[in-house]
TrEMBL record:
Protein name: PPC domain-containing protein
InterPro entries the record matches: PPC_dom
Segments traversing the membrane: none
Boundaries of every PPC domain copy: 1-133
Amino acid sequence: MQSLPIRLNPGDDLRAAIEASMRGADCRAAFVVAGIGSLSSAGLRFAGAQQPRRFTGDIEILSLAGSVNFDGAHGSSHLHMALSTASGEVFGGHVAPSCIVRTTAEVLLALLPEWDFSRAPDVLTGYLELEITKRDIKPGEGQL
């Protein structure tokens, strides 16, 4: 496992920036170990909901964690986040696309170069679920 701390800037899309950082490290499997920061716009899909709830304004990321994979030209994240609004209300759920950084976001990625993550339909859950495969790594490959 290799660690990769990243700092996101105002206007960055949280999910896209995390996936781009992982691709930039030439890695196809990673976990978001921790994340904090602020957002101007966020979406969370609550358990059992079909659509995310959108939030705008001054939003704090209290916690961010999840798995990220790179499968061909597509990244795929399964991220969960707890956030607080300017009034102090706290919400948590699945991170939806278009969570935009307000001032900064600080994220720690655990890169797993010896592994491949992908998503495939699961008959038990009915969702695309994580599939984990060990990679055959050649000397010098998968190093930061």
